[in-house]
Write a structure and sequence with these properties.
mainly alpha; 2 strands; 68% helix
Amino acid sequence: MFHLLNAGIDWGLAIEKLLLIVVVVSIALGFAMYSTYGERKVAAILQDRLGPNRFGPLGLGQPIADAIKLFFKEEIIPNRANKVLFVMGPALAMMAALMTSAVIPWGDKIIIGGKEVSLQIADVNVGILYIFAVVALGVYGVMIGGWSSNNKFSLLAAIRGASQNISYELAMGLSIIALLFVTGSLSLKDIVVGQQETMWNVVYQPLGFFIFLICAFAETNRTPFDLPEAENELNFGYHQEYSSMKLGFYLFAEYINMFMSSVLMATLYFGGYDIPFFNEAASTLHPNWIALLGFLSLMAKTIAFVFFFMWVRWTIPRFRYDQLMHLGWKTLIPLALFNMLLTAAIMLYLQGR
């Protein structure tokens, strides 16, 4: 029986992928933790104040203090809440946020002990479809959390969140269809390699990128699309009844989603780990150095997008809910359809020449 279970399993590859998963999840959690620090510092700069500056040099220990506070806060579950679903909600939101990282190419291959190791957990040929499936799964974390709390404000916020995500997923999907006309592949690895050989996709799809960027704000519930967490309307939003690390999971999931959205935009439209005008010069470097520089390039693009998310939050006021739905259904979806049809017409024209 033991031999049957081991048949066909490459344990070396399994351990390699497991280690890569641990590294990627650690990076995502660390980035999310220090995004809270970055957000408070960006807000302080825009509002002409200091921000966190007490715990550690330059206040760098503040995220650690916040994590300790959440861990040791009292766990409170409302008496009339559905306890199983109440616990499942934040866990599902966190899981869906982290699962997105599985198909993202974080860099080129590295060589360890004479063996090539891919810096991508799973290079599936339907990587973009996988991401959309996982993003749709994250909606259930919001809905379950709001409904299981047995609080009318939490439920209303959860319904808002689900409606918002479903609405903006349509425009996002249509913008990706136009991108697929250009790339001809659903694999994120193929999309990055294609941009290395030609030009970044943002040059071919500027309108598609703009639509995707706006939808990314809505999908991550960030201002000006933070209607599910509208404190002045819904007290605190869909996680109003949560405390301790259950609340921490919801807050961390939002920052991880922002991080993953930034990585995805960098991968789809800005070459991923590609460094412009570097391919020829890189031929003299060791592959591990090339992979490291590519990873740093991807992180630099990601940090730029994350800063933009934060900048917008502290600059633009929140939309009304009717404005949110009007923008999604009557502006972005028609624009995305126009972009898709225009891209298809151009591709057919170029193929017919």
